[in-house]
Design brief:
This protein is an alpha+beta fold and about 400 residues long. It has helices at about 15-25, 50-55, 85-95, 120-125, 135-150, 165-175, 180-190, 200-220, 230-245, 360-365, 365-370, and strands at about 5-10, 30-35, 45, 75, 80, 100-105, 105-110, 115, 225, 245-250, 255-260, 265-270, 270-280, 295-305, 315-320, 330-335, 350-355, 375-385. The strands form four sheets. Strands 8-7-15-16-17-14-18 form a seven-stranded mixed beta sheet. Strands 10-2-1-13-12-11 form a six-stranded mixed beta sheet, with helices on one face. Helix 1 (about 15-25) runs parallel beside helix 9 (about 230-245).
Length: about 400
């Protein structure tokens, strides 16, 4: 084994595997070390189902769940916009050779105690019960402006300076009501707080375009999800890394990160020294260099039925905007199922997550859990949120 590397990566989470795969693809010599025996880190998919219950010390699973090996449960669920940056990276790196994606069937937003389909084109707007007749007309005008907008062509600005006009001012220009602003900002642009309203409107325009373009590719929703679960992604990039000469050491303890004049010189693992020019690592490998900035609560719910008011969708995302519950941050519900080969036949996995704002986070996710009832079984996960400054 070589002892000199351009880059050493600690941890096999999604970000770490993507970075190491792209670095190897560009010709760098990469060594990947992980203290865990499996790929994925916090983004791993746990299988079989018995391992999930064991991990969080919960009795079970019930016999009604079917065979445990048919389950692949994400610890941190994610959906991907069909024309987003990650999908472009997947296509560019040809990682799509190693995994398959399926379209998420629906995108929904919660309003007034009910779940509504998110409109992102003129046809959806006409059929939506989120808006009145006049609001629909105004929304379609904004949508048309955003879809025709070209940052390189000032003629498409329509007297709106995208770098000086705030999002709040743009919405006011189109006389949008508060309800319309809410679902645009949170369910289409995917902001999780109201701070975006005072930012230059160029960002909201690009986000509306991204959502609409992704929806146009797939029709049912703008989101994609990997077959067999999110854990397939880090494994796909790990295969890419190995194909181009990367080296992996799993289930391997990291003894020390060796520094020289404030710069990383090497990594010591189980008594062996591996030199590098650059180090990229998961925050858990350098706990003294990170600080806690908040908490996220996630509750994994196992269901034997689709979520109500989603047209029996086998997968979907539901967003509960903060203003609906007088909160500072949104609540997200991701639903996947047997259709993605992550659960037994007829079974569903729904994860409710949000930023914890009080000392009683269990109560904060209750509105999301009520939308899923009845719940066969649930597992609660509360994790610390850490900044990426450790990389």
């Amino acid at each position: 084994m070589e002892q000199e590397y351009d880059i050493i990566v600690l941890g096999t989470g999604l970000k770490e595997c993507i970075i190491s795969g792209l670095m190897t693809l560009s010709g760098k010599k990469v060594l990947h070390i992980d203290k865990n025996p499996y790929y994925g880190g916090e983004s791993a998919s746990i299988s079989p189902l018995e391992e999930l219950y064991k991990k969080f010390k919960v009795p079970g699973p019930p016999k009604s769940m079917g065979r445990g090996k048919e389950w692949n449960v994400d610890l941190i669920p994610k959906f991907f916009l069909a024309t987003g940056q990650l999908v472009k990276i997947l296509v560019h790196s040809e990682v799509t050779r190693y995994l398959d994606f399926k379209v998420v069937e629906g995108s929904y937003v919660y309003k007034g105690g009910k779940v509504h389909k998110v409109p992102a084109n003129e046809k959806d707007a006409d059929a939506s019960d989120l808006m009145g007749m006049f609001d629909k007309r105004r929304f379609k005008k904004l949508l048309l402006f955003a879809l025709n907008f070209d940052i390189k062509n000032p003629r498409t600005y329509h007297d709106v300076d995208p770098h000086k006009t705030s999002t709040r001012e743009l919405f006011h220009r189109y006389d949008l009501g508060l309800d319309v602003i809410e679902f645009i900002g949170h369910a289409i642009a995917l902001h999780n707080s109201e701070s975006y309203l005072d930012l230059p409107c160029v960002e909201i325009i690009s986000r509306i375009r991204l959502y609409s373009d992704s929806l146009a590719c797939r029709n049912t929703s703008p989101y994609l999800y990997p077959v067999y679960g999110l854990g397939e992604l880090p494994q796909g990039f790990a295969r890419l890394n190995a194909e181009y000469g990367g080296t992996f050491l799993l289930n391997r303890a990291v003894d020390e990160i060796v520094m020289d004049n404030g710069k990383v010189k090497a990594v010591k693992s189980e008594g062996k020294l591996f030199h590098c020019k650059q180090l990229i690592c998961d925050p858990s490998y350098v706990p003294s260099r990170v600080r806690k900035v908040g908490r996220v609560i996630r509750v994994i719910c196992l269901l034997n039925h689709p979520v109500k008011n989603t047209h029996d969708a086998s997968s979907c995302q539901i967003i509960i905007p903060q203003t609906q519950l007088s909160r500072k941050s949104d609540i997200y519900i991701s639903v996947v199922s047997f259709a993605h080969n992550v659960a037994s036949d007829g079974m569903y996995i729904a994860t409710v997550s949000t930023t914890a704002e009080t000392n009683n986070p269990e109560q904060e996710v209750q509105p999301g859990l009520e939308l899923l009832e009845p719940i066969i079984s649930k597992i609660q996960i509360c994790v610390c949120q850490q900044p990426a400054s450790s990389k």
